[in-house]
Amino acid sequence: MVGWMPYMAVHGQDDAAIKAAKAAAASAGLKKYQKFSTVDSIRWIWGGDASLSFASTALTNWAGGGEDQIAVAPAVNLFANYKKGKWTWENYGIFNYSIQKNGERKAVKNGDNIQIVTKLGHQLSPKWFYTGSLLARTQFSPGYTYSAKDTVKVSDFLAPISLYLSIGMDYRPNKNISAAISPLMGKATFARADDIVVLSNAGLVTTEKDASGADVKVPRHSRYEFGGGLEVNLNGTVFKNKLSYSSQIVLFSNYAQHPENVDITWWVTAKYKIYKNISADIRFDLLFDDDKKPTDENGQLRGAKVQMKSYAGVSVFYQF
Question: Are 314 and 280 in contact (CB under 8 A)?
């Protein structure tokens, strides 16, 4: 999942430039899957990959106990980048989903992510760019928590959707590392929902005092924040392009409210090519948002918690 990271823009359409761009693409693991425009006025490079990961356990008269299990996780990563002179325009999207079925119980979702980024840059020096970017993050379908007693809906499509608009400087010491420093960053959170639990998990419910001094939960459908942030991207390949890796961490501090409580979004992926289009994959996600205070089993708002999720599996993939 390295090739779609935004550092392989075409620097011209003559033969030498195309050869250089292909060499850069090959070093990033994309090789022949890159496409290059032959129109001088349009310097585009685009591509991506699609994969299907799966895991299965089947038991027949197994004395040790247990139950059958099957898990499927499709994913698509896309990018389209443009460069002309000192201007760059980078776009990429991450789409993944996973479901799991245990025994006779119905299939449940255990992973869901839509992330779209567009970034406009102007080169100041060989390693520094002025940048402005917009990041949007949401999910495809409703999400639930499951317990022995009941099932509770906690999220949905566009519930929430988070938008980050940032202006700053992007430092790129090489093709594998980018660090965007944004002293001006706006964060907006919206939720297309009325369910108090969904709004609580989106960080859109606050506790206020009524006239009698009692605590009252106040739901909202949007929240706007202004602050600063940092986005670091790392990607590359090792072991003769057998192992590709990528990671992104986004930090955000609200200037107006508890700036010391930094929101964190961090993910790491690694793909080891076993044979042609078959790979072993791992992914780790960590999230922390001080405003997201989910409700407990009694309906009371609890404190923000660090959220973590990990995944390991085997996938069939295709690059284009």
Answer: yes
Taking the C-alpha atoms of residue 313 and residue 203, their distance in angstroms, rounded to an integer, is: 32
How far apart CA 142 and CA 213 sit, in angstroms, is: 36
Query: Does a structural domain hold residue 284?
Result: yes
pLDDT per residue over 16-72, tens digit each?
554 555 555 454 444 333 444 444 445 788 999 899 998 888 887 787 788 888 999
User: How many domains does the chain fold into?
Assistant: 1
- pLDDT value at residue 190: 96
* 151/109 Cα distance (integer angstroms): 13
CATH code (residue 164): 2.40.230
Q: What are the b/e assignments for 185-210, b being 16+ CB within 10 Å?
A: bbbebbbebebebbbbbbbbbeeeee
Instruction: Provide the domain limits for residue 94.
Output: 15-319
The total of other beta-carbon atoms located within 10 Å of residue 47's CB is 19
Domain membership flag for residue 97: yes
| SS3 assignment, position 186 | strand
Report pLDDT digits (tens) over 179-194.
999 999 999 999 999 9
Distances in Å between the Cα of 300 and the Cα atoms of 192, 197, 217, 295 are 22, 10, 9, 5
Alpha carbon of 22 to those of 10, 26, 49, 183, 271: distances in Å? 9, 6, 17, 35, 22
pLDDT of residue 19: 55
Residues with Cβ within 8 Å of 264's Cβ and at least 6 positions away in sequence, in order, are: 249, 250, 251, 286, 287, 288
Q: What sections of the chain are H helices per DSSP?
A: 15-27, 196-201
* Cα–Cα distance for residue pair 9/44, rounded to 1 Å: 7
5 belongs to a structural domain: no
Secondary element (H or E) of residue 87: strand 87-102
Residue 3 lies in a domain: no
CA pair distance 169, 231, nearest whole angstrom: 10
